[in-house]
Sequence to fold (169 residues):
Amino acid sequence: MSAKHVTNSLLVLLTIGLIMMPCSCFFLGANPPMPEVTYGEFPFRLEYKINGELVNIEDVVICEFDGFGWNEMRGKYRKWTSHLSNNKKESAVLIIIDEKVKIYCYVGSAEYYMGDEKWPELKPLTPRFVHINRSPNDMNVYEIQDFIEKYNLKLISWEFTVPIVNTFK
Fold:
């Protein structure tokens, strides 16, 4: 092997190492502190009117610590899962208008309810209504204001459990 070939190989390895080092530092670094409380149940009551009909929903948001994750934007972070007690797959209340129109009402994130200090802005001041078209040709999320006006959707009352005060060690 020639000296030029060895030098080129070393330069390539050095370049790859310099590119990978910042990523590996985040990936191999320490996890954020563990939450002391890893499970919580948070009852809520949602009352709304749709096309003049009053609807009451009482349910429980179940939140659990799900380990640690990593991505380029956040680095290492605590992962949380949440779902409703009556539906293990959904973390939002489903409001069915008709066969084609479904509106979801998001009632807060697991990070919020479990007192994850890193995400204080995730507060459910009011439930968030979102229309998601799940047709095969269109999986977009649409502005809800048009649907609120069209179907006369109105939030009447919203009662939720305040988040816990969690500590992280």
User: Anything to note?
Assistant: DSSP finds three helices and eight strands in the chain. The beta strands are 39-50, 53-71, 75-84, 92-96, 102-106, 128-132, 141-142, 154-160. Helices lie at 3-28, 110-113, 145-150. Residues 103 and 131 are 5 Å apart (CA to CA).
